[in-house]
Design brief:
about 200 residues, mainly beta, Lipocalin, eight-stranded antiparallel barrel, globular
Length: about 200
């Protein structure tokens, strides 16, 4: 009986170390950007103004999870003035040729695996759902840092960084402008922050 008690006591610190830390994404500083070839001449860039979600990390077990939800109607390329045109670029991106925001108001990314390099996460494998289609996409962490949030004098703990990835929009059924007017490959870059939950 004593051996069981001692074993349980010894195991407790290790169990605590293996507990996952849970974070809620900061929607004001988590921004997904994208870029795509335009008319085989220049690169057009845009962003989604808002993203929400959560992530968790268990450094001892080298595992984690990520869930991100993006309101498609927040797509923004800075083109908001029609200037005599029938529609702006942002209005076009919201219609059925592209993001079809009326029928598909959100797109999501949900992880299937977090890959570690040493003690820290290096990439996130997961599924992107857009226009009702789900395909695998991998996000590579270009930067990852955790620590007290200086904006709250250290009262709040945060993790954040930058992530990149890419996908072919045609695989999700977004085929307008192919092959020459608008490129197929969409490159992603995202800043993200998450606040630790107590």
């Amino acid at each position: 009986m004593k051996k069981l008690i001692i074993a349980a006591a010894m195991a407790t610190p290790f169990a605590a170390l293996a507990e996952a830390e849970n974070y809620v994404i900061d929607p004001f500083h988590t921004v997904p950007y994208f870029e795509v070839d335009h008319l085989q001449t220049a690169t057009m860039r845009g962003r989604f103004d808002r993203a929400t979600g959560k992530f968790s990390i268990d450094r001892a077990a080298k595992s984690g999870s990520v869930e991100i939800e993006i309101p498609t109607a927040t797509v923004n390329t800075g083109d908001t003035d029609r200037a005599g045109r029938p529609r702006t670029r942002d209005e076009h991106l919201k219609n059925a040729d592209f993001f079809n925001v009326q029928e598909f108001p959100t797109m999501t990314f949900k992880s299937t695996k977090v890959v570690f390099k040493g003690e820290e996460p290096a990439s996130v494998e997961g599924n992107l759902t857009m226009l009702g289609v789900t395909k695998p996409v991998t996000l590579t962490l270009e930067r990852w840092k955790c620590g007290p949030d200086m904006r709250t004098q250290g009262k709040r703990y945060q993790c954040g960084g930058n992530a990149t990835g890419s996908f072919k929009r045609s695989e999700f059924g977004m085929k307008f402008g192919l092959p020459n007017a608008v490129g197929d490959e969409v490159k992603l870059w995202m800043s993200f922050y998450g606040f630790k939950q107590q």
